[in-house]
User: What shape does this take?
Amino acid sequence: MPLVTSGVEKGNLRELALARMDDLGLKCRDVRTREAGIQDIHNKIRPEEVELVCSDYTTNEGSETLPPCVTRRFGLKLWKQPLAEM
Assistant: This one.
C-alpha cells in the first residue's frame, strides 16, 4: 500500500489563494509575490523600470543601512515603496 493515497485536487493553490485574498481586499506580502517576474505579470512593473535605493546613515555605534526601497518612475512622478510593503 502506498504511503500517500491522496493529495491536493488543484495544482494552482497560489493563484487560488491570491484570488481569495483579492476578494477579501487583502494584499499578499509573501516574498515570492514581490519577485520581479511576478510584478511584471500582475502589475506591469518591468525590471528595467525598477531601481533599488538603500539609505546609509551614521549612528553612535557606526553606520546603518535602511532596507532597500523600490523606486519606479511614471513619467516625472517618483514612486517609492519599501520592499516589505509590496
User: Anything to note?
Assistant: The two ends are 46 Å apart (CA to CA). The longest strand covers residues 69-74.
